[in-house]
Amino acid sequence: xxxxxxxxxxITFNDDTDENVGLAMPLLTQCDTDEDFTDGIDNLDDxxxxxxxxxxxxxxxxAMPVAVGRPxxxxxxxxxxxxxxxxxxxxxxxTDIEDPxxxxxxxxxxxxxxxxxxxxxxxxxxxxLQGKKRFQLNTLIHTExxxxxxxxxxxxxxxxKDDREFEALVSTIKELTVKMLQAAVNELPRDLxxxxxxxxxxxxxxxxxxxxxxxxPAEKQELLLIGNLRERAxxxxxxxxxxxxLLELKNSIQMKTHEDIxxxxxxxxxxxxxxxxxxxxGGNINEIEIRExxxxxxxxxxxxxxxxTFEKEIRKLERLHPQSPDFSIQTQYVQTxxxxxxxxxxxxxxxxxxxxxxxxxxxYGLEKVKERIIEHLAVLKLKGDMKSPIICLYGPPGVGKTxxxxxxxxxxxxxxxxxxxxxxxxxxxxxxxxRTYIGALCGRIIQNIMKAGTSNPVFxxxxxDKVANDFKGDPAAALLEALxxxxxxxxxxxxxxxxxxxxxxxxxxxxxxxxxxxQPLLDRMELIEISxxxxxxxxxxxxxxxxxxxxxxxxxxxxxxxxxxxxxQELVISYTRESGVRELDKKIAKVMRKLARKLASNEPLPxxxxxxHLSEYLGAVEYTRDTYQGNEYAGVVTGLAWTAVGxxxxxxxxxxxxxxxxxxxxxxxxxxxMKESAMLALEYIHAHASHFGIDEEMFENWNVHIHxxxxxxxxxxxxxxxxxxxxxxxxxxxxKVRSSIAMTGEITLRGKVxxxxxxxxxxxxxxxxxxxxxxxxxxNRKDINEIKAEYLKGLTFHYVKDIREVVxxxxxxxxxxxPLF
Length: 821
Hints:
single chain; alpha/beta; 7-stranded mixed sheet; 5-stranded mixed β-barrel; 27 helices; about 20% strand; elongated
């Protein structure tokens, strides 16, 4: 059959001066379906010219451009063209050998036709070889002109025509070959793709694919050795799959690298453009910032140690590249040093009258706190310089501990800062984080000093009793340094790493419960108790502060309505039960909302809010207070008690019942101390029965029961001691208790009366209940002297030292109606 070939396209070839130093890509040819590339093979002698190639394996049917440079190879090519000879093409095992011997060549090669000789522009020669048939080299013959060899032709084992599996195999090879060519060449011509896909000659398709795979010549030689075309195709598909996956992986890596390089180049060019623009505008932005920092530093009045540290850190900042991650960290640290108010102090207002006016304007009562602030200001005025006190205000919620700090700051003309310590459990919140940590910051004390802008603000440490601790450290221990007047002139913050003077800062801590504060911390603070407000103080606070504030908050005119004094009293007594005034403020706000609704609905507002109006605005009464209940019963005596929400009166009831005697029953949910007081009172009466006119047999034939009403409410404390004694003596003697009298005091087994606390609250509770006379311990006289005279008006006080005095004052000689005996 006549060979029919046309060269369509030259993909690429090696143009080295010596033949086949690199890889040569085949030329794509078009051939008939049944072409077997045996044209001229029948007339071939057993001995033919041998052309050794470097790095190139030729396959049957494939046209391959080869650069020729060795003299013997040139003579062979010229002779083949001149006499139209076929040549045998073999691949060298070692590319470095210039004159190969028989052992240096693979023994299986391809007979080729020299199609054309091309003279290249650089003076080199390229020939196009067309593969024909495989052969086996038997012996190599050396001649002076070129190599010759004795060969044996090798036949191809072709599959059957109707082999569907082989057809699918060839189709898959075509697809993978096209994909590899597309991956290797950016834009593969469309006619080339169509030629590959439409080629029906399976031998040529497989040979072309074998030539195109980018593998070593040794692996290609393995493919050439396989005589069975089906087996060669399977081996080829395995290699194609492997190499295509590798090629895809390489392309993916190159694409990612290319994108990264492009992004870096883009950022670099943008940075250069920004730098150029900044230089045109007057300098680099980073240089401008550093220059501004130096200008600020020149105006600072800081110690030499701070100045040296700043210079060291600013020089370090200048050496850092702006794109370095340490640059922003270093900038933040330098700015922290600059922004701290080193040696900057606000000027105190030494006008004591002004300070007193400010404190009285904002807070009613709290005399001890106000007095302490005025004293500090007075000493500061005389001395000119002193360490600020560290005050701890403790008391129930809502009494104005936190808001007092603002008034103190205004009175002293100082800046006001506040931090809430409630729930704080990380020591770094106080001392700051070390700069080695990512996102490190200075502690909250230094942060607030920076915010205040002065080194002597009024610093509120709110809820200091609610500081927690865990594995991150103990913040309360970190506060020891800040709150110690002997140490806080050199407070060390971990982030700042420079000692800072806090000795001029006025720290005011607030707490509800001192029991949860560590003892070392308590020792460093000056404790001032702020007890709950009494009724009269709450009424004054409501009238002067809360009502005007809520009128303004609800958009009501100032003179639109008024609260009568009795209305405020009823509001405090019947609708609140607290030490402070927060709940009172909420109730007043509720009344104001009702009034605002009326005003918005064009309804008339009442000129005064009367007590009977409260049920309309606030609903039914929420709390009731006990009142004096008379003296008709024996064994019922009025006592006085202190609670967290103020003073209260309580009744001690004693009764006798026939029995075996020596049995004492206590009810009313009494605590251990109160039970002991009851037992003490009974033993004292038993021991001194003759003095009180009590028959000894009474203790053997009558059982005693002491009850304190409101049994659901826990009660404890020693202050009901004299009340229990009086109640028991009244029960055993059936004598009447003096009308409108109440008492409080602790007793001993010897009959002594001891002082108790909460006198102010107890007195006001007695006054509200209609009590006229009070029996107190002699040592409580000093507490009465500290109470304002208006609170004592209408009350008579009896001071006692012994229980006998109490009984003689409290009991009448007259017996009750219907006595037991």
